[in-house]
Amino acid sequence: FGSRSERHALVVSVGSMALLSILLIAPAVASGSSPKKEPITSHSLRRLQGSSDEESSSLRAARDVCSSFGSCSDYGCSSFYKPWQKCQCHSNCGRWGNCCPDYQAKCATCAGLGCGGSYNGKQPCQCNEKCSSAGNCCFDYEPTCLGRPWPAPVAPWGGLQIPRDTPPSFALAYSGGAWPSMSFPGHGEMHIFAIGDWGGLDGSLITKCGRTRLVLYTGGETCGPHPLPHSRWNKGHTQLLCNRSELIQCFDTQGLTCNEGCGWVNGTDNEPQLRVAAALESRAVRKDPKFILNVGDNFYWGGIEEECGSPMTSISATTRHQFQHIFEGVYSGVGLKGKPWLSVLGNHDWGGWAFNNGWDQQIAYTWASDRWVLPAPYWSQHVEFPDLGFSVDIFMIDSNAMGAKEPSEDPQHNICSQLHNPVGASCRSAGGPASVEECPAFFHGLWEQQKPWLEQRMSESKADWQIVNTHFPCGHEAAFYRALHEQRGLDLLVTGHRHDQELQEHSPVLGGMTCLVAGGGGGITSEASPGSDPSHWYGEAQYGFYDITISKSQIFIESVNYDGEVVKTATVHPQ
């Protein structure tokens, strides 16, 4: 995405998410005990605007009703789509049918009115050379009439604290916000664990609406977690050593009938999530981690097994079942109880090869849990260690644009796949992609939106350390992260997606920044055999997690294997 205008065109194209049209169908309900009010529709607004005598009082009444789903008076006029808003105030909203009710009154454009001329009292804003000094220019006066660039799309929620006790009105509403700060007093070592790609299948889940049960092999019908079988290749990815069907045969026979190329390790490959969880819990008892960085792919194959669009104030039975059997019941014990999991969504959480699964329920679960923290696709967390005199800013970002391709491309590894997304798939009401056709633009628009947000937030950060936590592995968007490291002080990049453990110390492609891939959580079988020589694959291990000891002077990273053994270490010093 080269020019600024191209980037804005992309983000505007995501504006086909007609959130307002959904909200206008049902009556707006006032808070407390106020009676239900009649819905405002485009027809009723046109009728209200028909008479100049009644326009003022009627529009004021309409704004009172419409304030429950937003107005341009509150949001301000814009040149681009803003997914955190309930309705839109940009110049293409009429095309998509998602304008706020007061758009015409508040956001007349110079593109429509024309530039120049003299003052016109009948217009809500002006497009002449005197409007700047008078303070009544249309919002697009400078880019349209003077040729100046549009401002970068930065979420207005950015930097504001996300309310701990109030779920968002829709899943993306708190994008760019800050979860309430955490503080950990004490003079001892401070540990953070990092893990990803951990959420296996639960065959005991009775799926709804014709969805296939999550059972792939003998024994998989019992309560989870059960790992998703994944094919294994040689290191150069030029030779397929073991395909999925062959690996499923290993599961079915507990390795008794198994292609040698699969490298099956019985007792490990058939229960890796449980093995890693046991090592995690054991180390947690000794090290007392303050929180866990979770890099996503929390539930295989496709996240929460229901469609997006559930109310953010409720948790479905399916969601509770999957969280209980794959998360709550697995990562428990003294060392992990009550410890926050600072989380992002992986491509499988959006749906893997579809986008319409219950990713929004993972966000909603934040307000139903005492430790799951995923309030938006991208957000930030400030952490204080007051007795040790240092602080950390952690930025959780959504990098799933890397897995969002054109609908006709790579159907097995494409969130926007035409083949696997059902006909009419839409997450419009949740703030997600409105259709398969617009899916790539949504994800790439979300990525472009995060870049200036992250740059701005890092520039404003006064913390001693800055860490980015995201799903796609070291190497994606390398130039962007390198610039963050060299110009804005990014200290550590924590990622996942590849199903192994890779501690890349002082990576040259990242300008010397250390990056780790924590994709060995065991929800899916590892890239290579856990019993093979580590030189046969990238990284130092297949299943495991990371223990990060952080102080004012350094970050010490230990890669912990599924058996609890530390297999590699690295040290990061401040920029």
What is the secondary structure topology, with strand pairs?
Layout (H helix, E strand, L loop, with lengths): L3 H10 L5 H5 L18 H7 L3 H15 L5 H4 L17 H4 L6 H4 L3 H4 L17 H4 L6 H5 L32 E6 L6 E6 L36 E2 L6 E3 L1 H10 L18 H16 L1 E6 L22 H12 L12 E3 L3 H4 L8 H6 L7 E2 L5 E7 L4 E7 L42 H22 L4 E5 L8 H11 L3 E4 L5 E7 L5 E6 L25 E7 L4 E7 L4 E7 L3
Parallel strand pairs: 1-8, 2-5, 5-6, 6-7, 9-10, 10-11, 11-13
Antiparallel strand pairs: 2-14, 3-4, 8-9, 12-13, 14-15, 15-16
Helix pairs in contact: 1-16
What this model shows, in words?
The protein is α/β, with parallel strands linked by helices and 575 residues long. Helices cover 25% and strands 15% of the residues. It is built from 17 helices and 16 strands. The strands form three sheets. Strands 1-8-9-10-11-13-12 form a seven-stranded mixed β-sheet. It has a seven-stranded mixed β-sheet with strand order 7-6-5-2-14-15-16, with helices on one face. A two-stranded antiparallel ribbon has the order 3-4. Strand 9 (390-396), helix 16 and strand 10 (465-469) form a beta-alpha-beta unit. Helix 1 crosses helix 16 (439-460). The radius of gyration is 25 Å and the shape is globular. It starts with a helix and ends with a strand. Mean pLDDT is 84; it is low at 1-68 and 152-156.
Top keywords for this entry?
single chain, 575 residues, alpha/beta, 7-stranded mixed β-sheet, 17 helices, globular, disordered N terminus
Please provide a brief summary of the model.
The chain has 575 residues and is of the alpha/beta class.
